Hints:
mainly beta; 2,3-Dihydroxybiphenyl 1,2-Dioxygenase, domain 1; eight-stranded mixed β-sheet
Amino acid sequence: MEFDHIGIITDEKKPGEVFVEATRVWVTNLKDHPFRVEWLRLEPDSPVTGPLREMPHIAFRVDSEEAIREAGKGMKVLLEPFDAGFALAGFYQTDDGAVVEFVMYKDGPSPWD
């Protein structure tokens, strides 16, 4: 697993954001940010709740859906692994409250290509 990005919640529209239907969240391309920040803007009817809706998260890249589940073992599940279109992602919370994402990018073009 390797560091991938930091995700920060915002209520401001950001340039180049794309919509993830599964979570009803607008996200920016972390590769466009010099510090790998992914901005997330949630629609009012987004099913994302709790710490994931209110706190930043740190993300780590893994190589399979099984690795997402394995990396999250022992942590509180905030959002089961889901298909974001360009990636599979699962969100968890550590015992001390940190929000962690484990992500596996799919082969092929991303929404920003």
